[in-house]
Write a structure and sequence with these properties.
The chain is an alpha/beta fold. 35% of the residues lie in helices and 25% in strands. The strands form 2 sheets. A 6-stranded mixed sheet has the order 5-6-7-3-8-9, with helices on both faces. A 3-stranded antiparallel sheet has the order 2-1-4, with helices on one face.
Length: 267
């Protein structure tokens, strides 16, 4: 791994063995004793690298392998073949220093306790990641100010709007200063104002903390306004790796894919 390289993915493949359940009671009984499985390839021979402090967008249609790739990078899934290193670690070894250096935010799954105010979850995060008190207070003040939620820290999460909850998720994930953050559709279902606030937040965190970010999104504004470059996946394969401007060029064969993706209405 190069000195300034945070992520190295080399010829990675991920297959899933899926149980194929037949229809009907008789077939179901037979299946109980002789199960049939099919093999589905989610990621196929993918290679790329991400430099320290870079924000990279993963694009592709549903089922292209974006979330699978994030889970491989975070060590949640084991690759079937190939090699991945993140910040010098093999993710699936799940060493303590590696886990303390990354964060994973999913737009459709909450990591904060809905029955508690956000500040209580943040305090728990402080204990788990051994963040000194002074550093904790300073970081919480900075992050909550960036997202303009200072007056909501003591409100139970369930009483917050969807956009406000996602802002708390982001604070919770950046609070211990991870070097690497994986974001899986963080603006999913949010209004335009919340989307813009999160984009500004991500750029500020990169500027202040040199955080490396890999983000998936179906909103092109998220990608255009935050990412240094994009990686386009199609049916599990990498079909483009470069700048957004080149991807939008008339001579690129991927123009239709991009135009079909959701773009936030600014009207």
């Amino acid at each position: 791994m190069k000195m300034d390289e945070m992520i190295s993915v080399r010829n990675v493949k991920k297959e899933f063995r899926i149980h194929e359940k037949p229809e009907g009671l008789k077939n179901g009984i037979r299946d109980f004793f002789h199960r049939k499985y099919i093999c589905r390839t989610a990621v196929r021979d993918v290679s790329f690298s991400v430099a320290r402090g870079e924000i990279v967008g993963l694009l592709g249609e549903n089922g292209a392998g974006k979330t699978t790739m994030l889970k491989l990078l975070a060590g949640i899934l084991f690759p079937t073949d190939g090699r991945i290193t993140v910040s010098g670690f093999t993710p699936t070894d799940r060493k303590k220093d590696f886990l303390k250096s990354i964060s994973f935010v999913m737009g459709n799954r909450s990591e904060v306790n809905w029955d508690l105010p956000a500040v209580d979850t943040f305090r728990y995060q402080q204990l788990v990641y051994e963040v000194p008190e002074d550093a904790f207070r300073e970081k919480l003040k900075m992050l909550s100010a960036l997202l303009e939620v200072e007056d909501l820290l003591k409100v139970p999460i369930r009483r917050l709007s969807l956009g406000e909850r996602m802002k708390m998720e982001l604070i919770n994930s950046f609070l211990y200063s991870p070097r690497m953050v994986f974001l899986d559709e963080p603006t999913l279902g949010l209004d335009l104002r919340s989307q813009i606030a999160i984009r500004v937040f991500l750029k500020a965190c990169r500027r202040e903390m040199n955080t490396t970010v890999v983000i998936t999104s179906h909103y092109m504004d998220d990608i255009e306004e935050t990412c240094d470059r994009v990686i386009l996946l199609g049916r599990g394969e990498k079909i483009y790796d470069g700048s957004i401007s080149e991807l939008r060029a008339p001579d690129q064969p991927f123009k239709e894919i991009i135009l079909n993706m959701i773009k936030a209405d600014k009207g």
